[in-house]
Amino acid sequence: MDKFENILKEPNLLDLSKKIYNVVLNEDFFTENKEITLSPSLYGAETINYIIADGLGSKNIEETDSSLNILNAGSINSTFPSSTNVALSTINLVAEPVNTGMLGYFQFDKEEYGLINALNWSKENEKMLEDDFFLENKTIWTIFKEKNIFTNNVQPKDLENSALSKYIYRNSNQINYKDEDELIDLLKNSSLLENRFNFIYYPKIDIAAHLFGVGSEEWKKELKIFEDIIQVINKSSIRKTYTLISADHGLTNVDKESRFILEYPESVEVFGDQRAVYANGPEEEVRKVFENVPGNFITKNELELLIGKSENEYMDRLVPEYCFLVDKGNIIFPKHLKADLVGYHGGLTDEEMKIPLIEFSNF
After folding, report:
1. Exposed, middle or buried, 228 (CB in 10 Å: 0-12/13-18/19+)?
2. What is the pLDDT of residues 158-203, one digit of tens each?
């Protein structure tokens, strides 16, 4: 408990989503366990926009002169792991990772499918999402539909038919855009934002951080493009509108000298994220795999504090036996991952975990 005390006490992305959705629904539909102070404009708005800028970490933008810093009302924590599919599932299913079924970038199914890329599902293993556990999980979009609340879900076109999108956005009114220019054109049409609630997902800041690093010129360029998009949103709606911008996670840069290629026997399975690494197998063998990597070994009981305790028998096949948290500035390469990037996430550092609460309204 002590090693995670601050993270467990502080509000996170799940707490933020509950608060926003309760206001949209105009009832205490979700139990709010931690207080998050947001602008009074949220409660007086006719339209509420919830924007997730992938990779827009609080600590990342604090180091810049971005205009978004002026509007930043503070920060909260991402999910654990601080990974895109985990965070987006938490937002859209309004549940802890262990209850959404999304536990990391890569998952391991002990019974049937083995290693699964849980961001880009293959045709074979996406059949897992047809299990009753996933089909019975109710999205926020289903709840909005049942309550007759008009909403839009604005997404990149290349994610339209992904297995993850079909799961977490079930029953949403999805509007897709090809690139930032098409997104801006969509947003200039004020009728798009005249609903009670709009969710907008923007991925390009994360892509630039992965490829070129946080603070790179390419990353700064993408940050500026996003700022321009926000200006369009701010001017588009004729209704009383409140907009909140946050993120799924931030990123941390890793030098080439701090990369560890893992070797392990067939009796050990390695999956999860490259900075929050999951493993199954005999404990002694698992510990040996990570013995030369700077970091901390986490037991299953400790991991439950971060991802939640499973209440469903189905999840026993997905919940990992161990987790290894790689120290800041380091990264591991398991056998199934070869991409040599600059920016990474998944771990518990402030750069990865802290996400902003950027607010503005037109009234």
Report:
1. exposed
2. 998 899 999 999 999 999 999 999 999 999 887 888 999 999 999 9
